[in-house]
Design goal:
This protein is mainly α.
């Protein structure tokens, strides 16, 4: 089986009933923790600049919008995901899967909450397994890598997890989900240069991954066939 298809089937088939109680509790804990650091991040250096930039990229349509955390600004969902992801990671207090070297919820929760707001309502029974499956994918990709870090893994792995989490929320068909993964690959980016120079581009790369996940879904749903050999 194509590895991309294996990941997609795993995410699309995720359900709350199959999750151990400890996993459900952990998901709720990390969701709450991530909201906390994301709200705190609204007052961090450069957060106001990021929000100002995102406001300049357009206004939310009547039905297609989501809110930025703490400020309450209503933006197109892709821009809200961008801002919220930046706020989550900009102080590096967000959760990390150390063996994977991935901060999974910065990308995933920002993307999934923006999607839930624009296309909801979404139940907790759908949201939690979608998030858990997305974390499985992002951290699984990180753990699988055996070479030294050359790219910023929270963004390059996170975009695939977030894309599949959204696909699960929307209950997309398998082929549309695979097309979305192809566009996640097209949108994937993230270098280590910000580490070298100490610049605030790290949370921007995570923000871009959250936005890219929604864009990948939208592109696939619009009917564009995506690349197949993604992983």
């Amino acid at each position: 089986m194509n590895p991309a298809e294996a990941f997609a089937r795993h995410a699309l088939g995720a359900g709350l009933a199959a999750m151990p109680p400890d996993a459900v509790t952990a998901a709720k804990t990390f969701i709450l923790d991530t909201f906390g650091v994301g709200v705190a991040g609204a007052k961090a250096p450069h957060a106001a600049d990021v929000l100002r930039a995102a406001r300049g990229w357009g206004v939310a349509a009547t039905r297609d919008g989501a809110h930025t955390w703490a400020s309450g600004a209503r933006l197109p969902a892709v821009q809200a995901a961008f801002v919220n992801a930046f706020q989550i990671h900009c102080q590096e207090y967000d959760c990390v899967h150390e063996p994977a070297v991935v901060h999974p919820l910065a990308t995933i929760l920002a993307a999934l909450t923006a999607e839930a707001e624009r296309s909801g309502p979404v139940s907790g029974a759908d949201f939690i397994p979608a998030l858990a499956a997305a974390v499985d994918v992002a951290t699984g990709l990180g753990v699988a890598v055996k070479t030294p870090i050359r790219f910023f893994r929270p963004a390059t792995a996170g975009i695939f997890g977030a894309t599949l989490g959204i696909a699960r929320l929307r209950r997309l068909p398998l082929q549309t989900t695979l097309d979305a993964m192809g566009y996640a690959l097209a949108f994937a980016s993230g270098t280590m240069q910000a580490h070298v120079e100490g610049k605030p581009a790290l949370p921007i790369q995570i923000a871009n991954a959250a936005r890219g996940a929604l864009m990948a879904i939208d592109t696939a749903v619009a009917g564009l066939p995506g690349p197949n050999d993604v992983i």
